[in-house]
């Protein structure tokens, strides 16, 4: 049953019609999408801004179909249901998975839609119109109901920041209490929230940043030590902090620019979990490190529904907290992108729709 009471015909959105700088995010008036069978319409309250959004906008992912409304971190309320929708209802506060599969294969039914067996999981805000708008429609199987007590602005960043970090640390990295873990790009959205989780899990955290101005913030988030390096050369400092042996695990957020240093910072038998690549460029690595030290390089994509629900429980309990730096009105999205690109953010930027 579809209910569209009090839903306007048009909405405000930021439309990306060509790749380029922040000015390519153009405030536009668009038709409010109509949910089809198995889809829900969400009134967006907040949408987080991610480094991935900057890469999408700049053209790092050339296959992105244009025009598109970016944004993959949403918190909002269901206002309309397409036919055949089950498990959710209008008025329900929700967030969404970032990568959306078919909803029917074994992986999707298990809550891991990023591994969809039917087709390549679609990225919200890239393959599908996303949350830089007042409304967004998504398949019902990608909706995640929010627990009471979880603010929508928190939900709007938790899926990408905490969800990504949780999957990298727990599921892929298998972090154990007492282990020493290095986080690169620690002052960014995923990095800060990785520190929060690592502290909660009882790990010793070494944060790597290129800006000394953010040291206090990193300690507040959970860093035991902070390495400031403008040129992002840090392996020797990690060795010095670990008695020469190296760290157990690296949560590699930056990618190409720091991957070699992360590999060099590991102890024998250590592991690197690669969560991102902010430049989009190819990285060069030395195979001998992997052979002689028996280290592991582990990829990670995004969290499952179950993992995200576990994150929500931790947030509601107060065990961890989100780091939202600034909230911008929707039309200020280009300004927010420019500031993030200049390295001004200390945590997540969020758009309020």
UniProtKB/TrEMBL annotation:
Residues 20-351 form the Enoyl reductase (ER) domain. Keywords: Metal-binding, Oxidoreductase, Zinc. Its EC number is 1.1.1.1. InterPro entries: ADH-like_C, ADH-like_N, ER, GroES-like_sf, NAD(P)-bd_dom_sf, SDR_fam. It comes from the Bacteria. GO terms for molecular function: alcohol dehydrogenase (NAD+) activity; metal ion binding. It is an enzyme of class 1 (oxidoreductase). GO terms for cellular component: cytoplasm. Pfam families: ADH_N, ADH_zinc_N. The keyword NADP does not apply. Its cofactor is Zn(2+). SMART domains: PKS_ER. Belongs to the zinc-containing alcohol dehydrogenase family. This is alcohol dehydrogenase.
């Amino acid at each position: 049953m579809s209910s569209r009471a009090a839903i306007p015909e048009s909405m405000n959105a930021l439309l990306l019609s060509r790749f380029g700088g922040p000015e390519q995010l153009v405030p536009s008036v668009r038709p409010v999408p109509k949910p089809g069978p198995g889809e829900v319409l969400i009134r967006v309250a907040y949408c987080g801004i991610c480094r991935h959004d900057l890469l999408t906008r700049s053209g790092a992912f050339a296959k992105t179909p244009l025009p598109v409304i970016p944004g993959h971190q949403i918190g909002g309320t269901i206002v309309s249901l397409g036919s055949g929708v089950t498990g959710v209802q209008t008025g329900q506060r929700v967030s969404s998975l970032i990568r959306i599969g078919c909803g029917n294969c074994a992986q999707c039914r298990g809550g891991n839609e990023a591994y969809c067996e039917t087709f390549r999981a679609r990225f919200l805000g890239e393959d599908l119109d996303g949350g830089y708008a007042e409304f967004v429609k998504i398949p019902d199987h990608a909706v995640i109901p929010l627990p009471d007590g979880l603010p929508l602005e928190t939900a709007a960043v938790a899926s990408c920041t905490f969800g990504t970090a949780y999957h990298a640390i727990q599921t892929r990295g298998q972090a154990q209490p007492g282990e020493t873990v290095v986080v690169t790009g620690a002052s960014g959205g995923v990095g800060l929230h990785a520190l929060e989780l690592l502290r909660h899990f009882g790990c010793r955290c070494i944060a790597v940043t290129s800006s000394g101005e953010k040291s206090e913030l990193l300690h507040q988030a959970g860093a035991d030590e902070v390495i400031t390096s403008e040129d992002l050369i840090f392996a020797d400092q990690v060795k010095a902090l670990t008695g020469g042996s190296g760290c157990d695990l690296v949560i590699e957020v930056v990618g190409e620019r720091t991957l070699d240093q992360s590999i060099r910072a590991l102890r024998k038998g250590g592991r690197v979990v690669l969560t991102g690549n902010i430049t989009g460029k190819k990285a060069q690595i030395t195979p001998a490190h992997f052979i002689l030290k028996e280290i592991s390089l582990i990829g990670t994509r995004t969290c499952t529904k179950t993992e995200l629900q576990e994150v929500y429980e931790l947030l509601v309990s107060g065990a961890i907290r989100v780091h939202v730096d600034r909230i911008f009105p929707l039309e200020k999205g280009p300004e927010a992108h420019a500031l993030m690109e200049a390295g001004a953010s200390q945590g997540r930027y969020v758009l309020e729709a």
